[in-house]
Amino acid sequence: MKDKIKILVTNDDGIDSPGIKALSQAMAKLGDVIVVAPDRQQSAVGHTLTVARPLRVTKVMRNGSLFGYAIDGSPSDCVKIAIHRLLPDKPDLVVSGINHGRNTAINILYSGTVAAATEGMLAGIPSIAISLASHDLSQDTSVAAEYAYLIAKKFVNSNLTPNFLLNVNVPSVPKEHILGIKVAKHSSSYWEDTYEMREDPFGRKYYWFAGEYCTPDDRLDTDDVALESGYVTITPVHFDFTKYDVLDKLSSFEEFNSAESNIDR
Amino acid sequence: MKDKIKILVTNDDGIDSPGIKALSQAMAKLGDVIVVAPDRQQSAVGHTLTVARPLRVTKVMRNGSLFGYAIDGSPSDCVKIAIHRLLPDKPDLVVSGINHGRNTAINILYSGTVAAATEGMLAGIPSIAISLASHDLSQDTSVAAEYAYLIAKKFVNSNLTPNFLLNVNVPSVPKEHILGIKVAKHSSSYWEDTYEMREDPFGRKYYWFAGEYCTPDDRLDTDDVALESGYVTITPVHFDFTKYDVLDKLSSFEEFNSAESNIDR
Predict the structure, then answer these.
(1) Could you give the ipTM of this predicted complex?
(2) What predicted TM-score, i.e. pTM, was given to this entire model?
C-alpha cells in the first residue's frame, strides 16, 4: 500500500447527509479524502446516468476548507465525473454511503449507493458500498463508519483484483449487539409490490408504491438473514448479465439459429 | 399456449415514440396488447424506481380506442404499476422497446428498456427487451418489430422457465442485409469516459458526458460483434450479483470472519 492513499467518498443521500459526514471522517484515518456527491437526495435512482443534459459542479466548503463537490446528478454521475474530470489522479479507493436503508438482495438493483461503487469497480478501483439497515435519518452512523474503516483498510491492503465491489450492510443496533462480520451471498428476498390508490385535494387519483419486503431465506450465509441476526454483512458483488446455462438451449431453437434472415423479404 | 395471450408493451423512449407504436402493432398479431409507458423520454435511467413521490396515470386514446396508459415515472415504475394495479390479469408476456440505441454489454446496466423487461422477469413473466442499433429516431423500426414478433412467439411457446429475460438487439440496416439471428453472450465492451467542459452564456462552467464506446472483443458469439456483423442478437440476461469465486477468499480474512464484534467497544 502507498503511504497515503486517495479516497473518493460519495453517496446517494446527498452531500449534506449525516452518513457521508461520518464516512468521510472515518476514511480520513486511512488516506486523503475527497467527497463528490449529489447535491440532493437520490434514493432508488439505480444506475442512472445523466446524458441528456449537462452537469453542474459546486465546490462545498466546511469550516473554511474544501469538503468536496456537489453535483446536480446521480451517484453514478458523481463517480464518473470525479474520476474522469475533477480529480487530478485516479483514486485508490471508492467508498459510497453510509446509506440509510439496507441494500441487500434484489435491492442492489435499485440502489444508487451500490451504483456509485459499481462505477468505481468498472474503473478498476477497489470500491465499497456501505448501508445502515434503518431508514431513520436520526440513527447513529458512527458504528457503520468504524466498520467501513476496518473493511476498507483490509480491502486496499489485500491483493484481490477489484473486479467486484464489496457491498456492506450494518445492522442498526447498538455497537455491543453486533455479532461480528459475515461474508454472505445475496439472499433471495423480494418485494411483494402494491400501489396504494389515493385522491388528491382536487379529487384526482394518484398511486404510491407501497411494497412489502419478503425474506424466504433462512440460511445464515445470505445477506438479509445474517444482517437480521446481528452481523455486519459483506457481499462481493459483480454484474455478469448472461445466463449461460440457457445459451445452448436457445441456440437449439431453429427460429433463433439460422444462416440467413428469418423474416420474409 | 393460450388462444389469446395478454401482452404488456412498454419502453423508455416514451409513449409517443415511433418504436412503441411499431412494437405494439407487431405484438397485436400475437395477442391482446396493452401499452403502459412513460409519458416522456427516459433514456439511461437504468433501474430507477419512484418511491419518494406518487405516480399519475393518464389514459391515452388513439383513433377513438384505448392505446394505453402514460405514467409520469420510469420504465420500471410502468411495469410494476401495470402488473400490480392497472391490469385486471397478470400479462403472459412483457415486451419493452423498440429502443433507439443498442443495449449490449455494459449498457444493460444503464438501460431503462432492459430495466422494464427485468421487472417483468422478476414477476415471473416471459420478458423481452428490444433495441435498434441507431440513435436516429427517423430510422425505420419495422424490421425490428418483425423480429420482436418472431422471437416473442417462440419464447411464449417454449417451455423455458422465465428466470431470465431476452435482450434483443437489431442492426440498423435494410432488411435484406440482416444475416439472421445469433444467440450471443454479452460482450466486454466498455465506455472510455470523458466529460466535456463548456461555458454557458453567463460564463459559468458545465460538464457534459461524452464517452467513447470501445469493443475489444472479436468473437462472433458476443452481442456487439454479432450485431456489427449484421446479426440480430439474443442474449439471455439475469442478475446474479454475488461473485461466488471470491466468497471463500474473503471469508479467509481474519478481519472479515470473527465470532464477535470486530471493533473496540
Answers:
(1) 0.92
(2) 0.94
